[in-house]
Design a protein that fits this description.
Blueprint (H helix, E strand, L loop, with lengths): L2 E5 L1 H15 L1 H8 L12 E6 L5 E9 L5 E8 L8 H17 L3 E7 L5 H12 L6 E7 L6 E7 H9 L1
C-alpha cells in the first residue's frame, strides 16, 4: 500500500528535478513536455507517494479543468520501484482524490505518443478492453506539440460504484 502526502510548490519542483535525474532529462521531456521539470501550475495539487518503508516511490499531480467537470492527472514512478503495481495504485488514488476535492465526473491523463512510450499506450488500450479499471476509456488525441498525446480517462461514477462493492 502507499501513503500520499501533499507537497508545496518548491518540494514539487524538487521531486520533479529528482525524477529528471532518475529517468534522464531528455526522457522526462519526451514524456511530460519540453518545460519539465517545472513548478506546479495554478490549482494543481502535488503529492509524493511513499511505501511502507516511507521511501518515495513516485509522485502524482492533479488539477481541476478550468471549464469542464473533470480533473487532469500526471504521475511518475521512480525507476527502482517500477513493476510493483504502484502506477495502478496511484491512478486509482488520484481518481478518488479528484472526486473528493472537486466532485468531477472524470479524471483524464495523457501519454506522450513518443515511440518509446508506445508499449505503455498499448498497455492502457488492452486494460480498457479487459476492463481492468472500471470506467477507464480512451478519450482522444492531441497532435501538437509533436509527437502528440493519447488521452485516457476514468469515468468516476463507474469507477466509484465498483469501489463500493
Amino acid at each position: 500500500m502507499l501513503e500520499f502526502q501533499e507537497v508545496n510548490r518548491d518540494e514539487a519542483h524538487s521531486i520533479w528535478c529528482d525524477f529528471a535525474d532518475d529517468i534522464g532529462l531528455e526522457h522526462m521531456r519526451q514524456t511530460y513536455g519540453k518545460y519539465w521539470p517545472r513548478f506546479p501550475v495554478m490549482d494543481e495539487k502535488v503529492y509524493k507517494a511513499l511505501n511502507n518503508k516511507m521511501e518515495r516511490v513516485g509522485w502524482v499531480a492533479i488539477r481541476p479543468d478550468p471549464v469542464d467537470p473533470m480533473a487532469w492527472q500526471c504521475s511518475g514512478i521512480f525507476e527502482k520501484f517500477r513493476g510493483n503495481g504502484f502506477s495502478k495504485i496511484i491512478l486509482q488514488w488520484s481518481a478518488m482524490k479528484s472526486y473528493e476535492l472537486w466532485g468531477v465526473e472524470a479524471m483524464l491523463f495523457e501519454i506522450s505518443n513518443h515511440v518509446l512510450l508506445q508499449p505503455y499506450i498499448q498497455y492502457h488500450i488492452r486494460r480498457i478492453f479487459e476492463k481492468k479499471i472500471p470506467g477507464e476509456y480512451a478519450a482522444g488525441f492531441i497532435n501538437t506539440p509533436a509527437p502528440g498525446y493519447t488521452i485516457f480517462g476514468i469515468k468516476l461514477d463507474e469507477f466509484l460504484a465498483q469501489k463500493r462493492l
